[in-house]
Amino acid sequence: MKKPLTEIVIPKEAAVFYLDQHGFWRHREQGKFEHRKIINYFHSRIRKDENGYHLRQRVGDRVEKVYFHYEDTALFVFDVIKGEEIFLVLNTQKKLRLNPKKLFVNGDSLYVNSGEHRIKFTDHSLIRISDLLDYEGDDYFITLRGRRHKIRQVEKGTL
Question: pLDDT for 17-34, tens place per residue?
Fold first, then answer.
């Protein structure tokens, strides 16, 4: 019979890193992470449970969960794959089919809802879909498959 894994939990107050409002990992004292492999590894380990977002990794016979602070959201759209359907590539490397009904604008940022997750578009991902976006007056729109969809707006600070 397999021995159950020991779980090590680090509360977010003890974490020395955090995710800033643009999707960059930062160390509290040393600043922005620069090593691409570490950055990608951190993003790929993001999980959410009843206590919030954390990095989860298995090390031998134990599981480490490090809860972390984030300035806006823990999930970001890092890239966009355009084809018959449009897929959003998240910082976790998961892919999500773009559903225009799930988009919303809050302040100067574009987001998408996916279940209990609020996902923010990075500048790079906005550039990738900029040809699909337009606005009239105070309203924002996205055009998919020849159909124009209004993007709902949420008042800043209400999320």
Answer: 999 999 999 999 999 999
Residue 158 has pLDDT above 90, yes or no: no
Greatest Cα pair distance, the chain, in angstroms, is 65
Cα torsion angle, 42, 43, 49, 50, sign? positive
User: What pLDDT score does 157 carry?
Assistant: 57
CA 20 vs CA 25, 69, 116: distances in Å: 6, 9, 20
State the alpha helices, DSSP H only, in 45-122. none
User: What are the backbone dihedrals phi and psi of residue 5, each rounded to the nearest 5 degrees, phi first?
Assistant: -70, 140
Beta strands in 13-51, from DSSP E residues, in sequence order: 17-19, 25-27, 31-32, 46-49
Cα 132 to its chain centre, rounded Å, is 21
